[in-house]
What does this fold into?
Amino acid sequence: MTTHRIRVGIDVGGTFTDAVAVDATTLRLVGQVKVPTSHHHEDGVAHGIVEALDRLLTQTGHAPADVAFLAHGTTQATNALLEGDVATVGLLGIGTGAGTYFTRRLATLAKLELTPGKRLPLHYAHVPDPEDAPAVRAAVEQLTAAGAKALVASEPFGVDRPEGEEAVADAARATGLPTTAAHEITSLYGLRKRTRTAVVNAAILPRMLATADLVDASITKAGVTAPLMVMRCDGGVMSLDEMRRRPLLTVLSGPAAGVAGALMQERVSEGVFLETGGTSTDISVVKRGKVAVRHAVLLGRTSYLNALDV
It folds into this structure.
């Protein structure tokens, strides 16, 4: 058995799961496999990931301990938004006085269109004082009774004064529902855009949390000790724990990984890069050896998500 270590990349698409291995030292391609994405297996897409990894290791003659680096790219978040397969979000707006008007207007985020004729399921509750525990509890109960599966706390100027969002989010987490404060998703100014970005993140949070847990357990069971990294939409990678907090960063990560590979492996300086999958076709333009980074458009609106321009 070879002693050379390998770096492995696994991409989970809507139709197929692809895995490739490169020599950890030379970066030479040493193996690649393709298996159907296991959407309907009891372990979800994690089953296909492990199957692809097992086949790849067999093909290349390596053991799980030979994996020096493992990166996982997924289109699950992208496909969930494209197909409207998201969780109902409960939005906790915070504030009193003049800011109340703008906070209450966040309820109109329920008009965000997922697919033609289908809107993002969102319910709104207002919390005047984040330190008023009974009021916070009542607002959370109102949202959970309405069917919310993930919660977001948002307050004007929460970037500068996050204490209010943090207090409400901490209280809401007692329900066991995944909860985030808007400033945790992005620290940029702009109440509506910041909250909209956090709401979209929350809409895919339950699904991506379940996926992360299954993938983590499956990779560990397979004997791989290298930390599992997840592709980001800006072409970088993040830890699995970061994905559990901000799964929105995986939106468009599949296309980002493809064009990042074209830049590194093919040394493209000028050109148009197309990647056709089972659910979508992604197009990006390479100019002067770079792909532009922009705020991604999600559900027809700009967000505070930095992504490669795909």
About this structure: The chain has nine helices and 16 strands. The mean pLDDT is 89.
